[in-house]
Automatic annotation (TrEMBL):
Protein's name in the database: GvpL/GvpF family gas vesicle protein
Subcellular location: Gas vesicle
Principal location: other
Presence of the UniProt keyword Cytoplasm in the record: no
Species the sequence originates in: Streptomyces polyasparticus
Domain of life: Bacteria
A Pfam family the protein falls into: GvpL_GvpF
Chain spans, region Disordered: 133-152
The family this protein is said to belong to: Belongs to the gas vesicle GvpF/GvpL family.
Alphabetical keyword list: Gas vesicle
């Protein structure tokens, strides 16, 4: 079997050197393939692992998938320090160099447009989780008479529900304002679907899951804006991740989120 070409990202030609010890999937050395004013960053991988059927089987192997994803991300993270790459999906492979050149030729117009849109920018992720820490104070239930106890029980339930409604309203208002403030500091935004806590295994209800494309020179102000909000509401948790390559802005339908430029 021949080696295939595993492509990590496409970018414009760059002169800055990547770290000398950087390698790709499986420890393979990296290579730059230029065509039509674009550069594909790739490495060679064995067809026995990355052919269509073997790759499908490997994607069911969590250990293999984790190691491959880490190597993939390491290359893109390194590229992000020296340029603004368009990251490709995990496991993007071609038969040979000719196949990579054909991709660059066929998709060149769209790739150049994407590179122009993300030029000079990085992606930041901001999530807000609601984590109620207390319940509304409960009135003491009188000890005399079933009717009085019943009325107080209903009143207590109504007070608890009203308190919860107020808390969720504050949370939604907080998230909406934060998103507006961050959008004003971003070149583009994308709202992803809230995370499912059963899948993410993260505590709290996710009420904001936003991606923000921010100029490198504006990133410090953007981060400060997020940091200032972290202690404003004790029952809300604000998480900031990044800077990343522009994953959420490198295809028109990434995760079907709502994108605003």
């Amino acid at each position: 079997m021949n080696d295939l070409r595993y492509v990590y990202a496409v970018c414009r030609p760059f002169e800055a050197a990547l770290q000398s010890d950087l390698v790709g999937v499986g420890g393979a050395p990296l290579k730059q393939l230029a065509h039509g004013g674009l550069v594909a960053v790739l490495s060679q991988v064995p067809e026995a692992d990355f052919g269509y059927e073997p790759l499908r089987a490997h994607l069911e192997d969590l250990d293999w998938l984790t190691g491959t994803a880490r190597a993939h991300q390491a290359v893109i993270a390194a590229l992000t320090t020296v340029t603004c790459p368009v990251p490709l999906r995990l496991g993007t492979v071609f038969r040979d160099d000719s196949g990579v050149r054909t991709m660059l030729q066929d998709e060149g117009e769209q790739l150049r447009e994407l590179l122009s849109r993300i030029d000079g920018c990085v992606e930041w992720g901001v999530k807000v989780y609601a984590e109620p820490t207390s319940e509304p104070e409960q009135a003491e239930v009188p000890q005399h008479g079933p009717s009085a106890s019943g009325r107080d029980y209903l009143r207590m339930r109504r007070a608890r529900q009203q308190g919860a409604d107020r808390m969720w309203a504050r949370a939604e208002s907080f998230a909406d304002k934060l998103h507006r403030d961050l959008t004003a500091r971003a070149a583009a935004t994308r709202l992803h679907r809230p995370q499912n806590p059963e899948l993410s295994r993260v505590s709290g209800r996710n009420i904001l899951n936003g991606a923000y494309l921010v100029g490198r020179s504006a990133s410090e102000e953007f981060v400060e804006c997020v940091e200032r909000t972290k202690d404003q509401e004790p029952e809300l948790r604000v998480e900031l991740t990044g800077p990343w390559a522009a994953y959420s802005f490198s295809s028109p339908d990434s995760e079907n989120g709502e994108e605003v430029w």
